Amino acid sequence: MLFKGTAITRGVGAGIVTATGMDTELGRISTLAQRASGVAAPLEKRLDVLGQRHADLPVRRDGKARGREQAALPRA
After folding, report:
1. pTM of this prediction?
2. What are phi and psi of 65, to 5 degrees?
3. Mind listing the pLDDT tens digit for each residue in 26-43?
4. Phi and psi for 2 in degrees, rounded to 5?
5. What CA–CA distances, in Å, run from 57 to 36, 49, 68?
C-alpha cells in the first residue's frame, strides 16, 4: 500500500487505486483535524497572545519599535 508522497526509486510494480479524496487515509486525517479545530493547542494560545501584543506596537521604517522600552517588549 502506498500513500501520497511515497517515492519509489527502482524496481517494477503495479498498483490498484482503492480510495480517492476524503475516503483516503489523508482524507480521514483531514476530517479529524477539522473536527478538532475548535480546540486551540497551548502553542496556538501563546502565539495568539504574542500576536495581539505586537499588533498594536508601532514600528518605524528602520524596523525598531517605538512607544515602549526594550525591556517591556514580550520575549518569544
Report:
1. 0.38
2. -80, 150
3. 888 888 888 876 777 788
4. -115, 150
5. 32, 13, 8
